[in-house]
Design brief:
There is one protein chain. It contains 5 helices and 3 strands; from the N terminus they run αααβααββ. The protein is mostly helical. The protein has one domain (about 25-100): Arc Repressor Mutant, subunit A, CATH 1.10.10.10. The protein has a 3-stranded antiparallel β-sheet. A hairpin with an 8-residue loop joins strand 2 and strand 3. Helix 3 packs across helix 5 (about 60-75). The longest helix is centred in the N-terminal third of the chain and has 13 residues, at about 25-35.
Length: about 100
């Protein structure tokens, strides 16, 4: 039982339901990746490279890019910092789902 408890992602029920209702298709899978690397590791933000998104989702770079743009345009995620030579772009989840655009 302890093994199972350590392997889940804690996410507020209302936030989880908002992702189901408002995010569809490839954008939902990319959002799940952001959630994995932020909430899944008890972080508010995380540096995530395009190659990591591609590995996690199996999507082409163009699909990852358009999905991230879709999520940013709808205020679901935001960019905390742009990439540098040493670090990937840092993303954060907007947990204020009431402010997400439809």
């Amino acid at each position: 039982m302890n093994e199972m408890r350590e392997s889940f992602r804690k996410i507020e029920t209302k936030l989880f339901k908002a992702t189901i209702r408002r995010v569809h298709g490839s954008a939902h899978i990319v959002l799940d990746t952001v959630i994995h690397f932020t909430l899944g590791y008890q972080r508010l933000e995380s540096a995530i490279s395009y190659s990591t998104f591609q590995d996690m989702t199996g999507f082409a770079r163009s699909t990852v890019r358009s999905s991230l743009e879709h999520l940013r345009d709808r205020n679901i995620i935001y960019v905390v910092s742009d990439p540098t030579n040493r670090k990937a772009r840092t993303y954060a989840l907007n947990t204020g789902y009431e402010t997400w655009l439809k």
